[in-house]
Structure to design on (464 residues):
């Protein structure tokens, strides 16, 4: 407890956890555990100081909400009651399914299920835990939306059981980019922490000397992870270059534009389609657009009389094979030459470039005809906020009703709607916003290269 008082004072004075650990010669984890004592009510801390509570019990109480601590303290202070300790305390905190009506964010009269009361009518509980969580999640989603409407830059709904640690954050007003954190306990209790930034974000804001606008411009994480951006780039590239084959006139004009201005590929080199992760490579190998493109390329290889029917066409090294190809082209009619040109242009089309966005919109490419939400897509989907937005595939009530669920659960619900499993209404055609033409984002966080590229060139191709 003396260490907690010292560490808490140092934190208030601006010292960091690593600095405190270095000063006292202990690990950062030990510092964090000691700071966690600040989550305890004062009476519990004093009981711990007097050795009336053992360390294990104190540790579990740091994971309890303030309401749970008050309930436990009432048992502890009553000699006629038993206050659970150690492992039994953990079971008391997290093991039961009985949920008190006191924790409901929604109006009790809106709950359609059974409510059970004790003999004295002083305590009442929801009999159906699943129905309670559906209503509670809807209320949490409404709370989140209300905070955003009131001007908070970001509202983060923590997963059930994930605690908000005030000692690892700094109070920050709304106008300086403060965020709202909503914590949800396993017993259904909801706590809203308004006006906080992590200490790292707060230090960065002070270093920049800027307020809310700068904080909003520098999000804590991009919308897409690196592997997901790679996945999106390659599948959009596959669909666009296959669509190009039916538009040789566009391919010709694109080729001339490359010849005039150059590009990252026009030297000439083929697009390597380099996958950053093995699951991305596997998904591309199973892509319908890739298979259809390979078949069209084999037909053109036969036109050129090349011995390797599965070989590529573009990207020669300037030896006599280029002269032989030229001689063969001279013997072909214009239509066949245009087919060759389309393949060459498609092979040298740069994945993840702005031209993919421009061409996909110009050709009205239908990715849904050649792309399906393969396992790799959901394996790479890690962002809880994005997964919750995608739940709108089943309607807003489904997204709101599962706002606090884990990402794994939300992804399972999305897949059930796409497959029609577990009694869900099957959605026949669905595309993530990232895969559409024109492309769309799920958040305002930025970090989505594809959307930024289309925003830069959109005015050149769309009549406003």
């Amino acid at each position: 407890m003396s260490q907690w008082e010292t560490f808490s004072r140092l934190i208030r004075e601006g010292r960091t956890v690593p600095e405190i650990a270095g000063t006292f010669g202990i690990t950062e984890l030990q510092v964090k555990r000691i700071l966690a004592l600040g989550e305890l009510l004062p009476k519990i801390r004093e009981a711990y100081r007097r050795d009336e509570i053992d360390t294990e019990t104190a540790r579990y109480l740091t994971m309890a909400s303030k309401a749970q601590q008050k309930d436990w303290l009432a048992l502890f202070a009553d000699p006629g009651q038993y206050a659970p300790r150690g492992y039994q305390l953990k079971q008391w905190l997290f093991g039961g399914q009985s949920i008190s009506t006191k924790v409901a964010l929604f109006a009790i009269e809106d709950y359609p299920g059974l409510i059970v009361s004790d003999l004295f009518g002083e305590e009442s509980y929801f009999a159906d835990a699943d129905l309670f969580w559906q209503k509670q999640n809807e209320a949490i989603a409404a709370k989140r939306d209300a905070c955003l409407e009131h001007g908070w830059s970001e509202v983060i709904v923590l997963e059930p059981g994930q605690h908000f640690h005030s000692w690892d954050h700094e109070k920050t007003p709304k106008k300086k980019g403060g965020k709202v954190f909503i914590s949800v306990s396993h017993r259904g209790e909801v706590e809203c922490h308004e006006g906080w930034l992590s200490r790292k974000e707060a230090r960065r804001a002070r270093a920049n000397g800027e307020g809310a606008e700068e904080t909003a411009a520098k999000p804590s994480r991009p919308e897409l992870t690196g592997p997901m951006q790679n996945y999106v780039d390659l599948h959009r590239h596959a669909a666009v270059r296959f669509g190009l084959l039916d538009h040789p006139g566009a391919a010709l004009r694109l080729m001339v534009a490359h010849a005039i201005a150059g590009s990252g590929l026009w030297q000439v080199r083929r697009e390597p389609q380099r996958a950053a992760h093995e699951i991305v490579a596997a998904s591309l190998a199973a892509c319908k657009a890739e298979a259809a493109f390979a078949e069209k390329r084999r037909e053109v290889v036969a036109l050129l009389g090349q011995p390797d029917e599965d070989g590529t066409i573009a990207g020669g090294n300037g030896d006599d094979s280029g002269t032989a190809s030229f001689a063969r082209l001279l013997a072909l009619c214009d239509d066949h030459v245009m087919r060759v040109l389309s393949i060459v242009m498609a092979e040298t089309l740069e994945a993840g470039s702005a031209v993919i966005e421009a061409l996909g919109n110009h050709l009205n490419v239908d990715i849904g005809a050649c792309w399906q939400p393969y396992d790799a897509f959901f394996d790479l989907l890690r962002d809880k906020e994005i997964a919750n937005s995608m739940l709108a595939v089943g309607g807003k009530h489904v997204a709101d009703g599962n706002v606090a669920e884990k990402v794994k659960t939300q992804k399972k619900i999305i897949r059930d709607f796409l497959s029609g499993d577990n009694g869900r209404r099957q959605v026949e055609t669905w595309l993530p916003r990232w895969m559409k033409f024109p492309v769309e984002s799920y958040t305002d966080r930025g970090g989505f290269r594809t959307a930024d590229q289309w925003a830069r060139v959109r005015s050149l191709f769309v009549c406003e």
Summary: Residues 253 and 463 are 20 Å apart (CA to CA). The chain has three domains: 2-99, 129-217, 226-369. The chain has a mean pLDDT of 84. The radius of gyration is 30 Å.
